[in-house]
Amino acid sequence: MKSEIKISGNRLQITRVFDAPRDSVFRWWSQAETLQQWSGCKDATRCEVEMDFRIGGGFRQTMQIAGAGKPFTIHGTYEEIVVPERIRYRLDMGMAVTQVLIEFFQEGKGTMVVLTQDGLPNEELCKIVSHGTDESLDKLEAIVSARAIASCPMATAAE
Question: Rounded to two decimals, what is the model's pTM?
């Protein structure tokens, strides 16, 4: 499923449904070794994540984007963590400091993720961020889908 993207002033909201349980999807956001497997736009050739996943803890994400001279780094501080329901953090992108809320809703056997980012300085930056975030979610969806397929027992033909 593709993301539903809404931009309104300095607010960006992205909604996507993943074919995996909420606990599983939440884990992909809460550990550095899993987050760096999917975070970053499709042109990110390298993504390194350091994180202290607790309220008051911080994170740093450094991405090398193909064609860009130097790496792009963002960092933030976790303000709220409710496992497996939501993650709220303050994000310093260099050109802007924003508030991000990621909510995880169980939907049948799947999970709806709603990411809301407030405080982007203009609609143009909202569009740029939404594009990169959506590409990251495409990567996460591919990983989650591959794992779901791998965990399904294969049907055998009757003899």
Answer: 0.89
